[in-house]
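Example (one chain per record):
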Amino acid sequence: MNEETTDKNQFVDELLQLKKESYENISLVDYQHLRKIIWINRIFLLLGFSTAWIIPNPISMLFISFALTNMWCIVAHHVCHGGYNRIKGIPKKYHSQRFATGWSRFLHWPDWVYPAAWKHEHNVLHHLNTNESLDPDQISYRQKSSKLSQNNWLSRILSMLSWGLWVSLWKALYYAPNTIKAMNEKKNYSHIKNYVLYRREIILRCYLPYIVCHFIILPLLFFPLGWYAVLFVLLNRIGAEVITNWHTFLLIVPSHHGEDISLHNQHFNDRSEFYLMQIASTSNYHTGGFWRDYFSGYLNYQIEHHLFPDLPASQYVRLQPKIKRLCQRHGINYIQESIFKRIIKLYDVTQGKKRLKRGHLLLEGGCDEHQPL
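Predicted structure:
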């Protein structure tokens, strides 16, 4: 951000006007867009499992993984933020307080992640503390030094293999336990009680439901076609699991990592600083075109989403060019690059080759209370 050319108050006033216009534009058209995404996910599931029983094959794995990815990245993500709460007349199951609760979880969002824990970890901790020390999704604060010896090819290969294995299982190894941990810490349990509940809840709320649903019950539905059909469905489902882990990781994590992204040592003081810190902490991928947006999980609009997280996914398409022009007019750095460039920048950070910037937005004092805006 160029402080000399930026009138913070004027920028925020114009930003809030764009926010007001977006809220006023929310309508049934946005709900119809959501329903379109849901039906595409269902069709992909049908296409994937209709061939999964025949033989293990990459086509089945890809179709299944695409559906799983966007059940989370598009549908659950925006519904849980309350993006559709303002639309009158839509089914209550698409309101943030009702979505994926109880048994409906296995229909609407059958994921490793427990929905109630996700809402606290993501909607509160991540969005209100983006790239601060309290951000549970900022790996730079948590990873150990992993700078590689440029002369040790074996270390580089082992590091790449280790990183690849972790990404292949990242929802089970990272997201599911982290969200449960955040939910338990919110309840202020004692250390011992918290540890016991953490172990029990991650098994009962994350691992057991997902494994039983996806890797036992689902393959057994194909038993009338024979044991080979059951085995092939299981293998295709395992392949889809690896693909969706890579897909979600490479969509979600790069947008907040890279040497051009800022870490913050202090919390924002007011709404203006919140908006500026969100822009400095986030990057977009290339946008435009329904299918590019779909396969990007609408995470190619991360800047707009972090500014106004409770908008429907479809609203970001119209809002993004306006936000970009506004930032450029006020001399504020708006980062938008190819997802492949962002992935390379993420990898450099994870391997210790590069670091995120610190103190990009200097704040005086900070704020003790992390309150919603």
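Caption: The chain has 14 helices and two strands.
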